Amino acid sequence: MSKESPIGVLIVAGLGVTFAVTTGILVLLTTSSYDVSGAVLVGPVLTAISVPILAREAKRQGDPKVFRLLMIALLVKMLGACLRYYITFHVYQAADATVYHNDGVDIAAQLKAGTYEFDYSALDGSYSISFITGVIYTIIGPTKLGGFLFYSWLAFIGYLLLYKAFVFAVPEGRRRTYGLLLFFLPSLVFWPSSIGKEAWMIFTLGIAVYGVARALSGVVGRGLIWAGVGLWLMALVRPHIAGMVAIAFGLAYLIQRRQPSRSILRPIARTVGALAVIVLAAVLVQRSAEFLGITELSTRGVVTELEETAVRSNSGGSEFRPVIVRSPTQLPAAVATVLFRPFPFEANNAQALAVSLEAAFLLCLSVIRYRWVWNAFKRMRDRPYIAFAAAYTAIFIVAFASFPNFGLLARERVQVLPFFLLFLAIPPFSPLSEETGGQDLEARDRASPLR
Q1: For residue 375, what are the contacts with CB-CB under 8 A and spacing of at least 6?
Q2: What is the per-residue pLDDT for 250?
Q3: Which of 137, 201, 250, 303 is the most exposed place for a label (fewest CB within 10 A)?
Q4: DSSP category for residue 91
Q5: Dihedral angle at the C-alpha atoms of 39, 45, 48, 54, nearest 10 degrees?
Q6: 8 A C-beta contact, residue 6 and residue 58
Q7: Residues 6 or more apart in contact with residue 62 via CB below 8 angstroms
Q8: In sequence order, which residues have a C-beta less than 8 Å from that of residue 15 and are 6 or more positions away?
Q9: How far is 389 from 420, CA to CA, in rounded Å?
Q10: Cβ contacts of 445 within 8 Å, gap of 6 or more
Q11: What angle do CA 32, 36, 40 make, to 5 degrees?
C-alpha cells in the first residue's frame, strides 16, 4: 500500500488555486458582470468544501491515489460546467437553464425580502428546479456561471455517492475502473453540468442509491433513511425515475440470498424493511403514473403512454424510429438503442458524432468484457446491489427506448449509465465461499486495497 501523503498535493493545488483566483477576481470584477465574475468566488469555495470530504474518502480506503483521482475528477467536472455554459449561451443561445436562472433570480429576491409565499404543492417538475435555483442564489448571489458550477458540483457529489455505493456493496469490484468510467466519461461530465434537471437527478440518485447499497448490505435502518431522503428529493423533479429506483430496490431486496443469523431481531428487521420498501415503491409508482398521465396502471396502459411519448418527442432534427417494447423479443433492440446509439453512421452533425463515438467505445468495452457482465449477473443474489442495478437498468431501457430523438436520449441516459458501468467493473471470480459471503461488508471493504 502506498505511504504517500496528500499534503504535497494539497500545497501545490492550493498555490495554483490561490494564484488563479486572485488573478481572476482582479480581472473579472473590473471587466464583467456578477453573472460571470461571481463564479470566480463560487468555484474556490466549492473546492474548499470538497477537499476534506474527498480526503476522508481516501483515508477510509487507505490509499492517497483515491484522493488524487477524486480531486482531478472534481476539476474536470468544474471544467465541464464551463464548457456547458459556453455551448449553451454561445453556440445554442437558448436553453431551459435561462428560464431556471431568471426564475431563480426572482425567487431569491423574494426570499431575501421575506415576501416569497411558499407552496409545497407547486414543487413539481420544472418549478422545483426554479425554486432550488432561487435557494442557491440566495446563498451565492445571482451568478449564472456560478449556478452552473454549483449544479455541476451537486452532480459530482452524486457521482461520489454512487462510487461509494459501489465500493461498499461490491468490495471485490474494480473500484478504480468504475471510478475512471464514472467520473470521466464525457457525457457524464458534460450533461449534468448546468442549471437544470440532469444535475439535480444525478445528485439525488447518488443519495438514494447510496442508501440502497447500505440497506441491501445489511445496514437497513440508516440505508432506508438515505434512500427515503434521496427518493423524496428525486420525486420533486422526476417521480417516474424515483419510481424506477424504488421498484428496483424492492426486487433486489426480495431476491437477495439471506445470510444465517443468530439474532432474533434480524428476521423482524428484514420483514419491516421489506414492507417499507414495498409501500415506498407503491406510493412512488402511483405518483409516477399521475405525473406521466397514465390512467390505466397496467402493461397496456404503460405501453400506450410510451407510444404517445414517442409521438411527442419526435422533433428537433435528431429523430429516429424508436423501439416500443411490447414483448421480450424487442429487448435486445431496446438495449442497443438506449445504451449504444446513435451509431457513428447515424450521426448527422458534430455533436451526434461525439455522442456516437462514446457509445461505440462503451459497446466495444462491453463486447471485450462480456464475461465480466455475465459474471456480475451470476452474483446477483450474493450481491443484491448488482440485482438492483440490473433491475433499474432494465426498467429504464424499456421506458426510454421509446424516445425517438438522439439528442434527448443522450441527455436522459446519464441517469442509467452509472448503473450499466457497474457491470464493466466486476471481473470474473470463483464462487463466493460461505465464509466470505458471511463477512461484514463494511469491515471487508475497509481492509481491501484500491483496485
Answers
A1: 426, 427, 428, 429
A2: 86
A3: 303
A4: I
A5: -70
A6: yes
A7: 1, 446, 449, 450
A8: none
A9: 7
A10: 167, 168, 171
A11: 105
The C-alpha cell that represents 322 in the structure block: 424508436
pLDDT at position 46: 93
Tally of residues, the chain: 451
Cα separation, 39 vs 24, whole angstroms: 10
Q: What percent of the chain has pLDDT over 90?
A: 47
Q: What is the grid cell recorded at 193?
A: 453540468
Closest CA to 256 of 371, 68, 386, 350: 386
Q: What is the pLDDT of residues 68-109, one digit of tens each?
A: 999 999 999 999 999 999 888 887 766 789 999 999 999 999
Is there a contact between 234 and 287 (Cβ–Cβ < 8 Å)? no
Tens of pLDDT, residues 244-287? 898 899 889 888 876 655 555 556 566 666 666 666 666 666 66
Provide the percentage of residues in the chain whose pLDDT is more than 70: 74
pTM for this structure? 0.84
Question: What is the C-alpha separation between 24 and 18, in angstroms, rounded?
Answer: 10
